[in-house]
Structure formats: C-alpha cells, structure tokens
Amino acid sequence: MKTELLAGTFGEFQPQNVYALYGVPNVGKTLMVMTEVASLASQGIRTLWIDTEGGLNFDGGAGIWGAWKEKLEKRFGLKDLNEFVEYKRVTGYEELMKYLGQVVEIEFGEGKMGILRKGKTRRGEETVYDSFGRKRGNCVIVLDSLSNVFRVEFGSTLQNFPSRGDATGLLTHAMNLLMEKVNAPLITTNHASLNPSNPWQFAQMRGGSMVAYWSKNVAYLEKPKKRALDTYRKVWAFRSPLYKELGHNEWMRIDNDKAFVNSSEEEVQAAIEAAATAKRDKEEAAEE
User: Fold this and answer.
1) pTM
2) Which of 185, 203, 186, 178 is nearest to 146 (CA)?
3) Residue 1 lies in a domain
4) Number of domains in the chain
C-alpha cells in the first residue's frame, strides 16, 4: 500500500504491521492519518477508523473530518471519502474490547484496580467482524488513539501499572487477531509525555515498553518551536525497517487546502529567512 507522506520514513504500509504515530496534543496526528486514509482511498483501499477521542465528528459538524473532508476529496479525486471508511466511536476500554470480540471487566478496589478477562462476546452482539471483518485484504485499520482508552478508565498511580499493563496486553492481542483476520496494517495515534524540567528532550510515547515493542514502526510528530515554522512539522523515525540508525527525520507542512504535504529542508530554511526579513523590515519601518 503506497503511503502519501511516510514513504521516506517507513516505506509502504505492510499488512499485519503496526505503525505508531505519537506526539503532544494538537500537533496534527489525526489530520496526518486522515491525509493518509484519503490517499489510500484513492487507491481503492478501505479503512476501519476506531475513534476513542470523539473530536473527529465523522458524521458531520465541527471537527477535523468536517473541516478537511472536501479538501482531501478534491486533492485525491474522490467523490465521497466516507464510502471508503467504516467509522466506529468507542468511549472506553471495555467498549473497545467488546467491539473487538473480547469481554473484559475492570475491577475497582480500594486505591487499586484490576482487569478480568471473561471470554468472547455472545452471538448477536455487534463486533468488528460483523461488518469490516467479513472481507479480507485491501484494507487498513486506524486506532485513534490507543492512549485515550487508558487515560479515561485507568488510574495513573503506580499501583495501577500492573493492571494497565495487563489491559494493554489484552488489547494488543485483540488487535493482532483482527489484523491477521483481515490481513491489514494498523495505524495508531498515541499521546506523548514531556519532561517539564527539560523542554528540549524528546517526548516519550505513552503506553510503556509493551506498546513501543509491539509497534514495529514508530514515528514522533514534532512541532518546531520557531514561530516562522508554525505550519511545519518534523517527523522522526524511531523504529523503521528503512533505517538502522535512530533519528532519521522528514519535514512536512500543513497546507490550508491540502492538509499534510511533504516538505524539505530548503523550504524550511526559506520560511525562516523570509520571517527574519519581514521582522527586520518591520523594525526598520518603525524606526523611520
């Protein structure tokens, strides 16, 4: 499956591989994935989009999907992007697992919680296999985001780390079964944790080592600190089959009419120089 943006970072999307994109809030992770989904739709590839955050507004209204759908359709020559996307909104971990065909229960105790696996869903209950899972191949899965279901339902205190680890393992297993069933790659968005004492340090992907090792392809989406680069993003490849060394990076830009597009170091430097020239001209005009 040809990638629109990440060819230089990951190569092509390969079935049953996990592609994890992480970053701080509002950096553009969902918009970047939406750009990829529209590009894949132009290749005839359908997408299952599992939304755990609720800000997408797939069915209309204010939100990322409504703001960019028509622009991406024009860019990729699509009549209706929604025809290639099956959308599922879930509000928590137990609901997500049930949709994936697994029944689990979060047990709350005094200052501590646990996770109990109870089996599979009963016949007649809606699961992913009732619609999307009926066809194999020529498809991709998006989980946007993996981090949010844990942030909502699991505590962040130390004594809850084991149960959260167990829950993460159950979820990755369920997603592996789905990827194998439909022979699809999985794209996940993930939240990032920053070190407040060191603003220059790279953010860490939330979810612990299990998520990092499960994702054979990991990229960090970073917004530069320079105001002149407000619409630019740098994508760092931390795990990629294309590069043995850590830290390979690519530049991208958010275009008002096209969403994410690939950029270059030369374009970035030109933007910085243009901003510096404009600032200097403004200062000189003020002195006069």
Assistant:
1) 0.90
2) 186
3) no
4) 1
pLDDT (tens digit, 9 = 90+) per residue, 238-283?
A: 877 666 556 688 999 999 999 999 999 999 999 999 998 888 888 7
Evaluated on CA atoms 161, 166, 170, 176, the torsion sign reads positive
Q: For residue 13, what pLDDT is reported?
A: 92
Asked whether residue 258 is domain-assigned, the answer is yes
Q: What is the pLDDT of residues 165-195, one digit of tens each?
A: 888 889 999 999 999 999 999 999 998 765 5
**Ordered alpha helix ranges (H), the chain:** 7-10, 29-42, 64-76, 93-99, 148-153, 161-182, 208-214, 265-287
Residue 245 lies in a domain: yes
**Residue 220 sits in which domain range?**
7-287
Residue 220 φ then ψ, to 5°: -105, 125
Q: Residue with structure tokens 């928590």?
A: 92
Cβ-contact 187, 141 below 8 angstroms: yes
CATH of the domain at 155: 3.40.50.300
Q: Which residues contact 219 (CB under 8 A, 6 or more apart)?
A: 6, 9, 10, 19, 20, 21, 22, 235, 236, 237, 238, 240
State the Cα–Cα distance between residues 162 and 206, nearest whole angstrom. 15
- Structure tokens given for 194: 């920053």
> Which amino acid is located at 276 in the chain?
A
Residue 109 within any structural domain of the chain: yes
